[in-house]
Amino acid sequence: MKLLVFVTEDAVADAAIDALVEQGFRVTRLASSGGFLRRGNTTILAGVEDTAVTKAQQTVSAVAEGTLCIVLDLERYERM
Fold this sequence. Notes:
Blueprint: E1 2-9, H1 10-22, E2 27-34, E3 39-48, H2 53-63, E4 68-73
Antiparallel strand pairs: 1-3, 1-4, 2-3
Helix pairs in contact: 1-2
């Protein structure tokens, strides 16, 4: 299992989230800001199986070019 952290511009966040949900991914949206001009960003969290990482990345890059993607290994997680 991997945790994908996408950081994208607010203007394309809805398209990225919609595309991920259409592909069956479950996501969490977080408002964030940063950078030199303090422009609004959106951070999208998605827990995906190892085999689906590339699919999720391609899904987002097709609708939100320039999005940063951080992939974290989840060695242990609990569903509560």
